[in-house]
Amino acid sequence: MKMVKGLLLGSAAALAASSGALAADLPVKAKAVEYVKICSLYGPGFYFIPGTDTCIKLGGYLRADVLANTNSDASGNMAGAGGAQNRFTNGYTWRSREDLNIDTRTATEYGVVRTYVDLTFSWTSDTYGAGAAAGSTVYSPIGTTAAPGNATGGGVAGGALGVYYAFIQFAGFTMGKAVSQFSAPWTNYPGNNFDGLVGGGGTVTGVNQFTYTAQFGNGVSLSLSAQDQAAYYQAGVQNLGVLGTGALGAYGASDYAGTIAPDLVAALRVDQAWGLFQASFAAHDNHAAYYGATELTGHPDDKWGWAAQLALSIKNIPTGPGDTINVQGVYTDGATRYNIQDLSQAGSMTYFSGTNVAGAYQSIGLGVAPDSVFVSGGQQQLIQTWGMRGAYTHNWNPYWNTSIYGAYAQVMYNSTAKTAICGPAGNGVGGSFGAVFGTAGLTSCNPDYNIAQIGTQTQWTPVKNLTFTADLTWQRLDQKYAGTITYPGSAAIGKPAAVYELKNQDAVTLLLRAQRNW
């Protein structure tokens, strides 16, 4: 009996130990998983960030560009190595870009709090140029500027980071880097991918601002804004008392002082089913430094410039569903960038081509559009401009569309500014132009000029969010100078010091693009 009792107790102990081990192996009840939930408050693509009441949306695109006959991406070829039209002018320029944007929104008792950031990562083939030994007319060494020059990381894996937008919106306020309130909704693109159109404000890549927008209902809104002028809205306050360097030295040296006042912008906008109307106004302070190297030389007074713009978009016109017409017109007085925007080359052009003039090496076209110019002891003379741009877009079917677009701008110097540049007799004698380029061959000295642009693009979207584009742009510089000049040469683009004919110029560029939005 004792043996049987011992066996029973031992078996019970073993079973108890076994049950304890099995209990230890049982799974503990897990916490509830935080599933990502769709947020339908702000449209498709938004999701709740797990554990919060904030919604987030990720988006962007991947783009590949190839451009013909230019050294820049979609801004033209009328300056620098692109305008040289020689062996430093690229036959093609290539860019690959990834864009990432992050949009977050949170509902509060004061309204929606929104943050938005748009980042780009780009790799762009760049420009080769020549160096020049000090005091030498020999271009030595040749072709030493390495490409791509924008590869900040260096080497094969280098590239460039861009911060386009980074802003907060709350209770009607926009704070940070966003498109200027002055700009039309299509910024630089009424019906195109070409970056360099004149005829209106731009800031495609955003500008720092503090803005309040009041909504009046029925699609009517008013925006009041203070925005940074330094990055994108300074076209130049040029000191003609100090001759500049290079091809445009006749227009003096840049003479900016520190920033004092932001640009002040107001925009009234009406959004309706038929389209959009917008009226914009901007005030721009031109704040120059000194006539000479120190404070003792004195300085010109500040001059406030201004710009006014009207924009109109007409949708769903009778030519077809989705067809649009976008047009705008602008006038500026001492606020040139609101017409000839920051991505346009039309505010500082040196373009070369051939000539039939005996004794001339080549021809050159010059066009410069600052905000103001002044001479030592004198006051700022504001530059006036006007311009317009527009486009018509037709949808052939859901997969194909074609647009025709154009732009035009005129740059005008007042009589005091012309005298400082071209001399009292208007022949270059006694002016900064004659001091740099000579007067022997000049038959007309006048810094005014016009710029005309026209183009067409066709887009094919074979599947949703994948688009292939071909965009052809022609530009014409209509300058008012005539005769010949003795150009001092430019080592950077391989141009020799020689006699050049002053001549109107034409340029053509082609953009081919593939873009996948996501």
Top keywords for this entry?
ion transport; 4 helices; porin; 16-stranded antiparallel β-barrel; Porin; Porin_alphabac; mainly beta; 5-stranded mixed sheet; transmembrane beta strand
In words, what does this structure look like?
The protein has 518 residues and is mainly β. It has one domain (32-517): Porin, CATH 2.40.160.10. It contains 4 helices and 26 strands. It has helices at 2-25, 80-84, 415-422, 432-437, and strands at 47-48, 54-68, 92-108, 111-124, 160-170, 173-178, 207-217, 220-227, 237-239, 253-254, 263-272, 275-286, 303-315, 324-333, 348-353, 362-368, 372-374, 381-382, 384-397, 400-412, 442-444, 449-463, 466-479, 482-487, 498-502, 505-517. A 16-stranded antiparallel β-barrel has the order 2-3-4-5-6-7-8-11-12-13-14-19-20-22-23-26. A 5-stranded mixed beta sheet has the order 15-16-25-24-21. It has a 4-stranded mixed beta sheet with strand order 10-9-17-18, with helices on one face. Strand 17 (372-374) and strand 18 (381-382) form a beta hairpin.
